[in-house]
Amino acid sequence: MRSYALRRLAQMVPVLLIIVSIVFVLMHLSGDPVALMLPEDATQEDMDALRKALNLDKPFYVQYATYLWDVLHGDFGKSFRFNQDALELVLERLPVTLELAVAAKIIAICLAVPLGILSATHKNSILELFVTTGTVLGKAMPHFWFGIMLVLVFGVNLQWLPVSGSGTFLHLILPAITLGFGNAAYIARLTRSSLLDSLHQDYVRTAKSKGLKNSVVIYKHAFRNALIPVVTIIMMQIGGMIGGALVTEAIFAWPGLGQLIVQSVNSKDMAVVQAAIFVVAVSVILINIVTDILVGWLDPRIKYR
């Protein structure tokens, strides 16, 4: 297992190289950021001086080589919008987004897994119809629309919860529900289908023939094997939440990484965009490695060679 983890960590290097190269090319294709950094009345001499200071006056391959060398040393440049080191700024915002993602995932798991189990163990019942209908609506419901409805109902009409900013537990509730609801629908459907598949396996019939209680058969024997695909999806969704919280953070003015990326893209703050995408990529890759290790722990039949 240790050698497998080390090998996967080594594979991060070429993957990250490809990612930062693609981002570098796309940011350069988006236009010249110098015009946005300077006021409208800036002279051509001022623009040329700033372009020279940022190495934007050099050939593309020189800029690319310089950029890779700086990235290897953890230097993504300085944000002209915030006047701060780009990587430092991104790492400051990352814990806020992680807080939102973890809270949303906890809500999704606590809601989805019990509903998936109940739906699988009460097949062809009203409860199963209710859960199935709810999961379909949860997957089909637009993310931004659901967040806006929560704001209107609980923030504007009832005035129970704050609708913007962060700092307290109450600020976290609405954005966490918005981000976690769609994930809960997918997890519930997967839990139901995976548990139904496990309940029809030979080892479950053997456990029932031994006279074990139905709850023991479900939770001790069938549910653990059913967890393997569920855990995989749950962990991979966390990586998606880190990079995909843009809409939620925009709706609730949540000061996380997603909002920072949107602001930086709009202002063409290339240093921040490149640093943010790099951090998100590293997070997703590390989460995938942890997921593989967890799946191997849940299913001893899996061997890493």
From TrEMBL:
Pfam families for this protein: BPD_transp_1, BPD_transp_1_N
SUPFAM superfamilies with a match to the protein in the record: MetI-like
Membrane topology: Multi-pass membrane protein
CDD domains on file: TM_PBP2
PROSITE patterns in alphabetical order: ABC_TM1 (PS50928)
Listed transmembrane segments: 12-31, 100-121, 142-163, 169-188, 226-252, 272-298
Swiss-Prot/TrEMBL keywords: Cell membrane, Membrane, Transmembrane, Transmembrane helix, Transport
PANTHER family named in the record: DIPEPTIDE TRANSPORT SYSTEM PERMEASE PROTEIN DPPB-RELATED
Domain of life of the source: Bacteria
Protein name: ABC transporter permease subunit
Record family assignment: Belongs to the binding-protein-dependent transport system permease family.
ABC transmembrane type-1 domain boundaries: 94-291
